[in-house]
Amino acid sequence: MFAAENGLKGDPRLQAISQAIRVVPHFPKPGIMFQDITTLLLDHKAFKDTVDIFVDRYRDMGISVVAGVEARGFMFGPSIALAIGAKFVPLRKPRKLPGEVISEAYVLEYGTDCLEMHVGAVQPGERALVIDDLVATGGTLSAAISLLERVGAEVIECACVIGLPEVKLNYFCFDVLPGQCYWKWTFGIRMMLFDKCISFRDNAGLMESHSISSWSHAK
Ligand SMILES: O=P(O)(O)OC[C@H]1O[C@H](OP(=O)(O)OP(=O)(O)O)[C@H](O)[C@@H]1O
Ligand SMILES: Nc1ncnc2[nH]cnc12
């Protein structure tokens, strides 16, 4: 989310959203600081503010598809889709969707997994937004982007509520693509003002052309 660009700089909603997210140490295994958005969902104002912030950003972008990543992308995606007049497409874990699917495997901070999407849910040329609660390595979002691009959709942006401070995207953003102000600006704002709230633009071509392991493994 571009706090300065869209007038969110200093917005008190951001701090309240951040504070509503519980951090659980050593879950699901030692060393992981688990960012628990279920406490955000319990806080009606913080939950609504989170959705509203995304809706304000995406309502005029001509987005026809909001693709939510199982499971936690399902908690934010449908509300955003309804509010911006888009359809919601679930990107599910393996063997959950009953119809014909396409699949994309990826590596997680604590394991490996796979996302699937129904064939025919998204048409070539559609403008898509990917929603999830959190980006850690970016592997999940990379898989989501791949699924959508494989069926000819254009991924306009990916939006997450939480960006982990150790995310390798910081490196990607500041060092690998120093000329890309968009990235630099986004993440500068995230770290200074947004804390746990980010949104970032997909630029799969650039991700691919630089061998950043966290992104390239899913490509
Ligand atoms: O950026 P990454 O390293 O790919 O990690 C981020 C993903 O990990 C979490 O989901 P998880 O796979 O744990 O599944 P869940 O939502 O079903 O618990 C989170 O909700 C993201 O989808
Ligand atoms: N630290 C974390 N907290 C919550 N979900 C995650 N998914 C990957 N890393 C995570």
Task: Give structural notes.
Residues 43-163 form the Phosphoribosyltransferase domain. It is an enzyme of class 2 (transferase). It catalyses: AMP + diphosphate = 5-phospho-alpha-D-ribose 1-diphosphate + adenine. Pathway: Purine metabolism; AMP biosynthesis via salvage pathway; AMP from adenine: step 1/1. The chain has 219 residues and is α/β, with parallel strands linked by helices. It has a domain at 62-210: Rossmann fold (3-Layer(aba) Sandwich), CATH 3.40.50. The protein is 37% helix and 26% strand. It has nine helices and nine strands. It has a five-stranded mixed sheet, with helices on both faces. α3 packs across α4 (77-84). The model is unreliable at 1-6 and 166-219 (pLDDT under 50). The structure holds 1-O-pyrophosphono-5-O-phosphono-alpha-D-ribofuranose (PRP) and adenine (ADE). Adenine binds next to β2.
Architecture blueprint of SSEs:
Elements: H1 12-20, E1 22-25, E2 33-36, H2 38-42, H3 44-58, E3 65-69, H4 77-84, E4 87-91, E5 101-108, E6 111-118, E7 127-135, H5 139-150, E8 154-163, H6 169-176, H7 181-194, E9 198-200, H8 204-209, H9 213-216
Parallel strand pairs: 3-4, 3-7, 7-8
Antiparallel strand pairs: 1-2, 5-6, 8-9
Helix pairs in contact: 1-3, 3-4
Bound molecules: 1-O-pyrophosphono-5-O-phosphono-alpha-D-ribofuranose and adenine.
The site of 1-O-pyrophosphono-5-O-phosphono-alpha-D-ribofuranose has 16 residues, from strand 7 and helix 5.
Pfam families: Pribosyltran
InterPro entries: Ade_phspho_trans (IPR005764), Adenine_PRTase (IPR050120), PRTase-like (IPR029057), PRTase_dom (IPR000836)
Catalytic activity: AMP + diphosphate = 5-phospho-alpha-D-ribose 1-diphosphate + adenine
